[in-house]
Design goal:
heterodimer; A: mainly alpha; about 85% helix; globular; B: alpha+beta; Immunoglobulin-like; 2 domains; four-stranded antiparallel sheet; about 25% helix
């Protein structure tokens, strides 16, 4: 019951705060700019609808990752910076519960970003194939990414002293994870590139969406990607549990 | 009276074999190359597959043949070669060994990203020959079709951020009002 109250508080704080509003507006702005780019560029406007949905999915996944990194970094280290962590720790809930509540808050933020992205996905992909599977798999992949990166960043945030330190690690991690997308498909064809692609949850999420939306492959092809995402989620949640069992001020 | 097709077929085959210069496939030396376009209308966004054949008409085995596509835009007054990278086409195929009488078939798939009139040809480079062997130019038209429509995107791209601003402004206004009360 106390955990539920804490989750509710975290969600309301995230959604109705000016910080939350700014995040959703930035997310919307990014999606708007990208979709305008699609129609204003002759070559991009000729893309197959499924390809356009896949490109849009990459942006949505990046937003999910960014939310997780920012919210996760702020989780404990932000409270420590604002000198409100002590107040939080003397409440009758354990630090593990606080970690869970903060992760749920991040998850709700992702849900809102996902809901905001639906009209954009419809706008670029309604006349093409696999739009409904795209919705489902983007939601699944994004949820896994939020749990993985949100959990890991919250764990780091519980151990490290300042928000800046955690955020700098988080952004480096974000760049490393997104590098396969930035570098392009040719570099991912090499042995090392393929290995990184399999281990990297962000790469797995994007490959899964590519396989479903562009290549129209069924769920049996998605099992390796889902396995990578599930294993990474378990590791991230275990890390969060281990680091929040004892939080120092 | 029903006419038999068989004598005609023998005649055509004999003509092709005896006078290779008159057949549709271009040739130079012992290797013949031919390219065929898929049937039907081609529209932007389609990924048609062009069929290519390379036949060794000589008596010696050809080795290390390189086969590649060349695309040219035939828009009147603006004719220019087209970079196939944008068309996601396969760059080249290497035929390690082609025995006498043997035919190698390739499928050249590409995504049509531009409307207009185009010409496409298949070139074979034999390392032992001084001249490349080029197929006849295959003409094709690509019909215009925009897949990502601005009529759907513009209202969403402009409307959603505005709607979000209005919703947040309303929430802020309500919050300030309730604090004052």
């Amino acid at each position: 019951m106390k955990l539920m109250t804490l989750i509710r508080k975290e969600c309301i704080e995230d959604i109705f705060s000016s910080r939350g509003a700014a995040l959703y507006l930035v997310g919307c702005g990014v999606l708007s700019v990208f979709s305008l780019l699609l129609v204003s560029n002759t070559e991009l406007s000729l893309l197959d609808n499924a390809q356009a949905v896949y490109m849009m999915a990459g942006i949505i996944m990046s937003l999910a990752l960014l939310i997780s990194v920012i919210r996760g970094s702020d989780g404990f280290a932000g409270e420590r910076d604002r000198e409100t962590l002590e107040l939080l720790l003397i409440t009758p809930v354990s630090a593990v519960d606080i970690g869970i509540a903060k992760l749920m808050g991040t998850f709700v933020s992702w849900l809102i970003i996902f809901l905001l992205s639906i009209p954009y996905l419809w706008a670029v992909g309604s006349t093409g194939q696999n739009l409904w599977p795209a919705f489902i798999y983007i939601f699944i992949a994004g949820s896994f990414l939020v749990l993985i990166f949100g959990g890991f960043m919250l764990g780091l945030s519980a151990r490290m002293k300042t928000f800046k330190e955690v955020l700098s690690i988080g952004l480096t991690l974000f760049l490393l994870s997104a590098s396969p997308v930035i570098l392009g498909p040719s570099l991912r064809q090499s042995g090392i590139g393929r290995l990184i692609d399999h281990v990297n949850p962000f790469g797995s999420a994007l490959n899964m969406i590519d396989s479903v939306v562009v290549d129209s492959q069924n769920i049996s092809f998605q099992l390796p990607h889902l396995a990578t995402l599930t294993i990474c989620t378990i590791f991230a949640l275990c890390f969060l549990y281990a680091t929040t069992r004892r939080v120092e001020l | 009276m029903k006419k038999s097709f068989f004598p005609d077929l023998i005649f055509i085959t004999a003509i092709i074999l005896l006078f290779p210069a008159h057949c549709p496939a271009a040739g130079n030396g012992s290797v013949h190359v031919n390219l065929q376009r898929p049937a039907g209308t081609l529209t932007m966004g389609d990924t048609p597959v062009f069929s290519g054949t390379v036949t060794n008409m000589g008596t010696k085995t050809s080795q290390g043949l390189v086969v590649y596509l060349s695309l040219v835009s035939l828009k009147t007054g603006k004719e220019h070669p087209v970079d196939l990278e944008d068309w996601s086409a396969q760059k080249a195929v290497r035929i390690n060994r082609l025995a006498p009488g043997e035919t190698n078939r390739q499928e050249w798939s590409m995504r049509l990203i531009q409307a207009g009139r185009f010409g496409i040809a298949l070139t074979v480079v034999d390392p032992l020959e001084n001249r490349p062997i080029i197929s006849d130019l295959v003409h094709f038209d690509v019909q215009q079709k925009a897949t990502v429509s601005s009529a759907r995107i513009l209202p969403v791209a402009a409307g959603e951020p505005l709607l979000l601003i209005v919703i947040f402004a309303l929430f802020q206004w309500r919050r300030i009002r309730s604090r004052r009360e």
